[in-house]
Specification:
Blueprint: H1 2-21, H2 23-32, E1 50-56, E2 60-67, E3 70-77, E4 90-100, E5 108-113, E6 116-121, H3 122-138, H4 146-157, H5 164-172, E7 178-181, E8 190-197, E9 201-209, E10 214-224
Antiparallel strand pairs: 1-2, 2-3, 3-4, 4-8, 5-6, 6-7, 8-9, 9-10
Helix pairs in contact: 3-4
Length: 225
């Protein structure tokens, strides 16, 4: 059930995450929010900073609380222990970073992902990879994933497509790309990165932001406990 909860969060809260990046808009939502009480017995929920609430059937309720620049997603098992003797409720703490669509670099490393083309400054990436490799060489006990850096260095230097599920999140952590659309859809304005953590997992969700909507396109799981 936890996997389904996370799926629901990806669908309904990417927009809520973008709201958190828009300070004035989110403040107005918070000011107009009212505490919510579930109609289900023994499942009373009260969040004074509620900005979003959605119920899925009779088993899941998702409530989003805003605390400064952080969103707390409350995944509520409405049936509690009544159906399987286990309460699957949990909270996810989420922070956000917005990466604006930058200018096209002269010497570009191109990475295609779904209907988007990402162009990064290949010289800047090469210098960064070299610095990380030097750090690994000078510190044998470094916890840096050596094979990841070497793989990234190889695909960028040789301008290979690579595995975008790995390469793109790694590059977006350090560099701002120029993003182009490869079909006739709306032009990308940037990328919204959601960093989430729960008691059992953590990772990142990447979404393309346009003038019309925000669409999740990569989920990157960093760890499981």
């Amino acid at each position: 059930m936890k996997a389904f909860y996370q799926y629901c969060g990806l669908i309904t809260l990417v927009l809520a995450g973008f709201t958190a990046c828009q300070t004035n808009h989110s403040d107005s939502l918070t000011q107009g929010a009212k505490p919510v009480t579930d109609s289900f017995p023994n499942r009373n929920i009260h969040y004074p900073n509620l900005i979003s609430s959605q119920t899925f059937g009779d088993s899941i309720r998702l409530e989003v609380e805003k605390r400064g620049d952080t969103l707390i997603k409350h995944y509520i098992d409405l049936k509690g222990t009544a159906d399987d003797n286990f309460d699957d409720s949990y909270d996810a703490t989420c922070t956000y970073r917005y990466i604006a669509n930058g200018p096209s670099p002269q010497d570009a490393y191109q990475l295609n992902a779904l209907q988007y083309r990402f162009l990064f400054d290949s010289k800047a990436i090469g210098l960064w990879c070299d610095s990380v490799v030097d750090k690994i060489a000078s510190d044998p006990d470094s916890r840096i994933e050596k094979k990841n850096v070497y793989y990234l260095q190889k695909v960028v230097r040789n301008k290979l497509q690579g595995d975008y599920y790995f390469v793109l999140p790694e590059l977006l952590e350090h560099f701002a790309p120029h993003i182009e659309r490869t079909d006739n859809g709306p032009e990308p304005l940037g990328v919204l990165v959601e960093y989430y953590s729960t008691e059992f997992s953590g990772g990142k969700n990447y979404s393309i932001v346009t003038a019309h909507d925000t669409t999740n396109f990569i989920h990157h799981n960093d760890y499981m406990r």
